[in-house]
Amino acid sequence: MRAVVLDRVGRVRVAEVAEPAITEPDDAIVRVTLTAICGSDLHFLHGKAPIDPGDVLGHEAVGVVEAVGDGVEDVAPGDRVVVAFTIACGACWFCTHGQTQLCEHHRTLGAGTFGGNLAGAQAERVRVPAADTNLLPLPADLSDERALFVGDILTSGLYAATLAAPEPGAVVAVVGAGPVGYFCAQAARALGAARVFALDREPARLARATAAGLEALDVGLRHPVTVLAEATDGRGADVVIEAVGSPEAFESAVDVVRRGGRVVVLGVFAGESVPLQLGVFWARALDLRFAGITPVHAHWERALSLVASGAIDPLPIVSHRLPLEDAERGYELFDRREATKVVLVP
Ligand SMILES: [Zn+2]
Ligand SMILES: [Zn+2]
């Protein structure tokens, strides 16, 4: 079958690879009908995370179940499904307590050694372990493109908005209006926020936020503290979601939240640090919540219904639709930030 593999650091290619096979009783084989390139795939492209040349990339997919192992009960051949972006066992303490991102046997498709050596989803077919946990059946009338992001960033946005828990009528600020921030903002509105500000500098992102009915705030033009103060009789945003993963964005989030407000940190952090004045956080009675990786399985059914009802519209983030055979160009466009989101059709 055809699949996107790492050629060498800095380059992918589409190659002929071995067909996946059922190796455990809880496996399923999914024929991929749509897959996508994610920001985290670039870490492998650039050699920041280990993967071997020839390994299949990707972890976002929608498809049709082709075969299942003897132990699979909840999905069957012919079912249309979306694949979870992290592979959880479904049975450990964390999985049975809704924290599948902290699974004792946490794996990721297409993520090399640290992902459990599973082949990726940018392929004609993919093997999905613990299929009952990691595949979500789709309603027949929901298109592949609308369903795709339920397995990853759309549900991340809903998860962050759920942690942010805006009261009805709340004023919400989302720092970063990239694809993840876009979904955070849409989810916050779906959960009852009255006004949702999307903070960014990039004109295309701000335009997309405006088109979705959000209040786009160009932080290069106006100071966000001023704008959020004006919107709240001087208090500041009730809740803020940091959807970038940079010290600057974190500090901006803390700056625009009101005293007694809540900041949810969804952006991915690694080695960065910022000085925290504990007395300031204490005196302002801030509620600071670190989201970590999204426990997608705990929130994706709700995400799916929000997409099906039209409350969240995923299509505006898709900038490119390419055949799988053009994946090399897709990676180049995405790496040069000329594409917001590239979907690949096997
Ligand atoms: Zn992803
Ligand atoms: Zn587990």
Question: Would you kindly provide a written description of the structure presented here, covering whatever features stand out?
Answer:
With 346 residues, this protein is of the alpha/beta class. 27% of the residues lie in helices and 24% in strands. It is built from eleven helices and 15 strands. It has helices at residues 39-45, 131-134, 144-148, 153-164, 179-190, 203-211, 224-230, 247-256, 278-283, 296-308, 327-335, and strands spanning 2-8, 11-16, 28-37, 61-68, 80-83, 125-128, 135-137, 171-175, 195-200, 215-218, 237-242, 257-265, 287-290, 320-323, 342-345. The strands form three sheets. Strands 3, 4, 5, 6, 7, 14 and 15 form a seven-stranded mixed beta sheet that branches. A six-stranded parallel beta sheet has the order 10-9-8-11-12-13, with helices on both faces. Strand 12, helix 9 and strand 13 (287-290) form a beta-alpha-beta unit. Helix 4 packs across helix 5 (179-190) and helix 4 (153-164) packs across helix 10. The longest helix has 13 residues, at 296-308. The structure holds zinc ion (2 copies). The site of one zinc ion (ZN) has 6 residues, from loops.
What would you call the shape?
globular
Count of helical stretches: 11
Structural class: alpha/beta
Distance, first to last CA? 10 Å
Q: Bound compounds, please?
A: zinc ion
Tell me which oligomeric state these chains represent: single chain
Q: Count the E strands.
A: 15
Give the overall pLDDT as a whole number: 96
